[in-house]
Write a structure and sequence with these properties.
about 550 residues; alpha/beta; Rossmann fold; seven-stranded mixed sheet; 18 strands; about 30% helix; about 25% strand; disordered N terminus
Length: about 550
């Protein structure tokens, strides 16, 4: 007997199932194709890294320009390990801040960050190492400390789910879900003064950020066709990553901390104006935290000199030239010359663009020094004589009386004719006319470095006839670190020219300079200031 099979007609249930499966597979088609298209991006070394652009990238660049405009220089920070006290993130917070500070000093070279060590013993360890490794014995002025102090997960959590049940659930198990998760992240940082480790008042940054993570997707979808299984899940997520949120906060903290320490209008770089209550309070704090009128006068002296309105010392004394400079500055704002130099003007001075300076700055001229301030002619230092005509000439000049200094615009000498290794070198400098002094040293076989002015002595002004002793108890030392000839040179410019130097020449103190000779430095100063610069140099012989 033969048996013939008759095809069965599809029932209504089978038609529904087939339709649902077809619809499900059609929905799978798009994401599967998208994943195939991404295959070309999964070649490992072939992928192109992308620059990390944050909400504060432009703010970091703005800070660089602001520090440049304000003439900020030789501000040195040590940075501690910025720990994650929540112990849940495991991200490189310290490296984030190092990158941020590097970004904000591209042109200004205003801030240097010492990355010595990686724990809270950095300052003590650095003190010990400086005694062994550096001939200058200098310390950073400030230490940055901070941590991730808060990470609260699921502060708010909302879940929404849409599914199917009954017959359809048995066939394809299909559901759609959406959830919103709110996390709160906190970062606190502050600045302490070195070496006494006291808090710098107001130099803090304490911010929190809310991280919202929204997820929506189609998941747990399973369709079975005979013995062939198909598993498909699709997740479409839009996440504000916790680590990226932390990077934003670290960059914000970098802008705040450095802006507060250097007292530049950092709020401009955060898109805030002086009407903001916090900014207004900050400016008032700066103004009233200056101990007395002398400290406020020094602030205006320094800034007006940087802005080419004033030419004179930064000593807290109110000279007629300073009052003229302030009057001209106020006129540039459209104010009367006798407008009070109060907190309202201080706010404008910080925040508004710099008006056009006068053709020549208002000058104090030579400032008379008390006779007691200068050593007697019998105490003039001798310069080490290396046998060259120049050194012999310098030696005879430094050993002569005050009238010899009137012949040479600038004379430098040492207090001893020679030094042994590890002895401290002391310089004596005398200028015939008032100017701005920069001194450099080149150890035997080493690179040139600037030793004056520096992080401890900000004002390079030297008055006519003044004797300047270096280091002279000013927080650094010059040690004869190895045998050989150490060269020292000082340059005196008619006006402050540092802020006119292009970015590659804005070297920090005690930092190797790329130029190979003192003559190259002199030429760079003359080109930047468009005025002649006088220079004198001496060679110090160091023996064992």
């Amino acid at each position: 007997m033969k048996t013939r099979s008759t095809p069965k007609r599809p029932t209504f249930r089978r038609l529904v199932c087939a339709g649902l499966v077809a619809a499900t597979l059609a929905a799978c088609g798009s994401p599967v194709k998208r994943n195939d298209d991404l295959g070309g991006l999964r070649r490992g070394p072939g992928n192109t890294p992308q620059r990390n652009i944050t909400d504060f990238t432009s703010g970091l660049r703005c800070m660089d320009e602001t520090l440049f405009a304000f003439g900020t220089r030789d501000v040195v920070f040590l940075i501690e390990e910025l720990r994650d006290e929540s112990r849940r993130l495991g991200v490189g917070t310290r490296d984030m801040m190092i990158s941020a500070v590097s970004e904000m000093t591209r042109r200004s070279r205003a801030v240097r960050l010492v990355t010595f060590g990686n724990d809270n013993q950095n300052v003590q360890l650095l003190l010990q190492q400086l005694e062994k490794r550096t001939p200058f014995g200098i310390l950073p002025q400030f230490d940055i400390r901070g941590s991730v102090t808060q990470f609260d997960e699921d502060v708010v959590r909302k879940d929404a789910r849409l599914g199917v049940s009954g017959l359809l659930e048995q066939l394809i198990g299909f559901n759609v879900s959406r959830n919103t998760q709110i996390n709160v992240l906190g970062f606190d940082a502050s600045v302490v003064a070195v070496p006494d480790l006291t808090i710098v008042p107001g130099a803090t940054s304490k911010n929190t950020v809310i991280v919202a993570r929204d997820q929506s997707g189609v998941s747990d979808g399973v369709a079975s066709i005979q013995k062939v299984g198909l598993s498909f899940s699709m997740n479409v997520s839009r996440n504000a990553g916790v680590a990226q949120a932390l990077r934003n906060m670290v960059e914000l903290a970098s802008i705040e901390l450095i802006g507060k320490v250097t007292r530049v209008p950092y709020w401009n770089c955060l898109g805030l104006d002086v009407k903001n209550p916090e900014v207004k309070r900050e400016i008032e704090d700066w103004f009233f935290s200056m101990r007395d009128d002398a400290e406020r006068t020094m602030f205006f002296q320094e800034q007006l000199r940087n802005r080419k309105f004033y030419d004179g010392p930064v000593d807290g004394k109110s000279y007629p030239a300073l009052q003229q400079a302030l009057g001209a500055y106020k006129k540039g704002f459209g104010y009367a010359e006798n407008t009070p130099t109060d907190v309202a003007f201080f706010t404008e001075f910080l925040s508004r663009p710099i008006p056009a300076p006068p053709e020549t700055p208002f000058s104090t001229g030579p400032i008379a020094k008390a006779a007691a301030d200068a050593p007697s002619s019998a105490a003039k230092p001798a310069v080490a004589n290396t046998g060259s005509a120049k050194d012999a000439s310098a030696s005879s000049q430094s050993a002569a009386n005050a009238s010899a200094a009137a012949v040479t615009p600038l004379v430098i000498g040492t207090t001893k004719p020679g030094y042994k290794v590890n002895e401290e070198i002391e310089l004596a400098i005398q200028a015939q006319r008032s100017g701005y002094l920069y001194c450099y040293i080149q150890p035997a076989g080493g690179a040139i470095q600037r030793i004056y002015p520096n992080r401890n002595v900000k004002d390079p002004r030297i008055e006519a006839g003044e004797f300047l002793l270096l280091p002279g108890g000013q927080g650094f030392k010059i040690s004869a670190d190895k045998p050989g000839a150490q060269k020292i040179a000082c340059l005196a410019a008619q006006r402050e020219v540092y802020n006119d130097l292009p970015p590659p020449l804005r070297w920090g103190d005690f930092e190797d300079i790329s130029l190979k000779s003192f003559a190259d430095i002199k030429a760079a100063f003359e080109k930047a200031g468009k005025l002649p610069v006088v220079m004198d140099e001496v060679t110090v012989q160091v023996t064992r």
